[in-house]
Amino acid sequence: MTETREDTPPEEKGPSAGQRFWQELTTGNIMVTLLSVVLALVIGAVLVAISDPRVQDAAGYFFARPGDLFSATWSSVGDAYAALFTGSLIDVSEYTVGRALRPFGETLTNATPLIAAGLAVAIAFRAGLFNIGAEGQIILGAIFAGYAGFAFDLPIIVHVTAAVVAGIVGGAIWAGIVGVLKAKTGAHEVIVTIMLNNIAAFLLAYLLGTVAFQRPGRQDPISPFVDESAQLPRLVESTRVHAGFLLAILAAAIIWWLLSRSTLGFRLRAVGNNPNAAHTAGMSVAGTYVVVFVLAGMLAGLAGASLALGTERHLNTGISGGLGFDAITVALLGRANPWGTVAAGILFGALRAGGVTMQARTGTPIDLVLVVQALIVLFIAAPPLIRAIFRIRVRAKEPVATASKGWES
Amino acid sequence: MKLELRGITKRFGPVVANDGIDLTVLPSEIHGLLGENGAGKSTLMNVLYGLLEPDGGTISVDDRELALTSPNDAMAAGIGMVHQHFMLVPVFTVAENVMLGAEQTYGPGFLDLAAAREQVREVSERYGFDVDPDAVVEDLPVGVQQRVEIIKALVRDARVLILDEPTAVLTPQETDELIDIMRQLKAAGTSIVFITHKLREMKAVADRITVIRLGAVVGEASPDSSENELASMMVGRAVSLMADRGAGEPGDHVLQVDGLTVVDGREQVVVDDVSFDVRAGEILAVAGVQGNGQTELVEAILGLQERVTGSARLDGSNGTELLGMSVRQVLHAGVGFIPEDRKVDGLVGQFTVAENLILDLYDQPPFAAGPRMKPAVMRDNARQQVREFDIRTDSINTLAGTLSGGNQQKLVVARELSRPLKLLIAAQPTRGLDVGSIEFVHSRMVAERDRGTAVLIVSTELDEVSALADRILVMCRGRVIGIVPGDTNRDVLGLMMAGLAPEDAKAEASARPDDRGAP
Question: Would the keyword Cell inner membrane be found if you checked this record's keyword annotation (chain B) (predicted)?
Fold first, then answer.
């Protein structure tokens, strides 16, 4: 047989945009991911420099003393990124180990909900679904966990366990609605999740005005602190990092096993790659959608629980603060892979933690971090651009991949 | 116009798709290009049409060398192409489609539709195409749409016309009409490059035949060569074109279908009150032109269609009712299914060969224990199936999407035959496959029949139907036209596929002079 020849140009009859996106997402080269981060930081540096008044002044007399511009740029960018580093990893100017490591603790604290919610988005990606609703699922998780945390009196270990489980259930219910709607009516999950995000946010705002939720003696929308017995314990003295981080890592391990070793993962990936073939092979596509959304909601609910019980330890209207949207970026950066999502979550946690320090020390707006995050997404979404910029040679795609495409008769 | 290709070489990465191909098309000649799928015919034609740039070699027209970088260059040089998949805008009229890309205008940029209409009418009359310039393309039958493509090329002064697998989508009658059109064009001085892997058509129409194998020209053949000679040139070894099989031994009724009706999403009745049965140890072939309800029929039996009425029972008239069951239940009841479009419905391209081989058994022992998959068992199974079904792959961990069509199909066949079956349903089991793979798939179907399985095959290819069927059910517009014996004359089948009742078809076929080499 002549099975090694290519007969049609590859652009013929390409896969749909969604499938292409998915393929880029999961088969993308790790180099592209790393270089996207590097490139985003480089462009961020340019923005830091041109927005710094000292650099602008030096540029004004560039032709008189060009050296000034370079040194001003160097110090501006150097200071900003040094602060970003100090604020996210280690502060060498501190005297005790605990305090010196405090920035890294801050990084992990920020990373915890990002990892859990990132997994919620990633697992949906693997099933070919876009879960834009992590934000709402986090909020519901936080509401359930927080209420369980301050409204009940339970023994010490039982209480925190029950509160975390309540958060997971809350997220699962919220996302389960999406799964059921999609499975029963074909409603598009993107629309439904976006709508549910808003509903969740207003639900939280409403609840915080009710007697059951509002902190006694307060007029603003804020809940009581959760009982000490329901708090996720701190892991390291004088940092904020709490046991929720371990739960997020455990969740990543479970999701990894589920995706790569379980029958459910097999079904989920099959449905994500080719729902037609999965259906023809007897898998229930609609049922898979429900399961995936429930799983995703559980993960986002865990993120919400870690916020309500570990980081904030009470509820307020800004408890999620857009984490659910950053989670989408985290999942993208992590290539929808559980361990990739963990790494991306830590990176984004570091950017968030370092951004605060950077703004405080050098006056560089924290918005720079948002710009860098946005640029990372942009570059990851456009791998050919990264390849072109860094001249990465793409290994010639197996041409047999498209053989016979033009020959269906 | 004389067209000469000299030493055309085209590489895709490490793969040489065309290796120094020489081809000369003389004026007023129908030149057949014969080769298996993947032999490099399409690549060569895409080079000739300016879609691909060759890595070496020259193209010349009337001894003048051309540099083709786009289809526009090719059209300017008088080369026209009719693609296998039509490049027409369905909601435009014929005239609008013909004018698209070469719009004539008058005044300040008004489209001169009248001129386009006139052009279509003129070409249509000159060759007796019978095409209405104001008809909307999506309302036209496929054969007429193809003529619109040909008109498009002719209006642009094509003197060499490339027809890429033009008969793949046509009924036998439409194919005959196309052959007439080709002869007329030739008489009017147009040269034609005719690409196909169907030997019968090639013999019927070509003046000279160039055979390509593995990207290189293996030789020239005369249309007088026998089909077996052509096939062995194409494949590079002796092949048997008829599936090697004895008569079937029909046993019990395995599938009993009664009054099955399917309504599709557009409220069309696509399968209309269909009844038939398939017995153990027999192959029933459902013949018909593409899109006459055959696909929906088998999908309904499998549980893939939503709005189905009637009945389809497994194990005879008192057996299990399949309609209303989930796909999974149907498969587990002992039905194997080879879907029509392997890439869409048959396999998951991003899954490995090993994973695809257990796509319907992944959660059953021995491949799974509870929620846990057993990758080692999966790999053992894959190694065994790859060997048994001769699936050519680098490894069992290769992504299925990167296999060639023939090997993808073998993968699907291997998977479906790896379970004990009562009924095998195969829709277009050899679509787009090369001769070698067709031989293999056919022999497997016959072997399955001989093991006592009831086999239901849907095919639009008369060759396939004749080669395999013990009985033939012909469908047209969702209805059963008739069920006839497997050795029914091709002309009769062709007429039945166009909707003639069996008796009328027989009368009509015998009244005609038999000039098309029917068996």
Answer: no
Q: Distance (Å, rounded) from C-alpha B426 to C-alpha B440?
A: 14
Average pLDDT on A357-377 reads 86
DSSP SS3 for B338: strand
What pLDDT does B509 receive? 81
Q: Are residues B14 and B82 in the same domain?
A: yes
**Which of residues B169, B201, B235 is at a domain's end?**
B235
Distance CA B428, CA B303 (A): 18
**Is pLDDT of A62 > 90?**
no
Q: How many domains in chain A?
A: 1
Chain A: nearest CA to B328, how far in angstroms? Answer: 4
> Domain span at residue A271?
113-342
pLDDT tens sequence across B186-235: 998 899 999 887 788 888 899 999 998 888 898 888 888 888 888 888 87
Q: What is the pLDDT of residues A236-273, one digit of tens each?
A: 877 889 999 999 999 999 999 999 999 999 999 999 99
Do B325 and B359 reside in the same domain of the chain? no
The Cα A115–Cα A121 span in angstroms is 10
Domain span at residue B264? 249-334+423-513
B407 at interface of A, judged by CB pairs closer than 8 A: yes
Boundary (domain end) residue, out of B419, B445, B461: B419
> Nearest residue of A to residue B406 by CA position?
A3
Q: What pLDDT is attached to residue B512?
A: 67
Residue A286 near residue A139, CB atoms below 8 Å: no
CATH code at position B161: 3.40.50.300
Question: Does the residue A15 lie in any domain?
Answer: no
Pair B202, B163 in one domain = yes
The structural domain count of chain B equals 3
pLDDT at A147 over 50: yes
Residues of A with CB under 8 A from a CB of B: 1-9, 13, 23, 26-27, 261-267, 269-270, 273-274, 276-284, 396-401, 403-404, 406-409
Say if residues A174 and A138 touch (Cβ distance below 8 Å).
no
Per the CB < 8 Å rule, is A2 touching B401? no
Residue A10 placed within a domain: no
What is the residue-averaged pLDDT of chain B? 87
Helix ranges (DSSP H) in B428-489: 435-450, 462-468
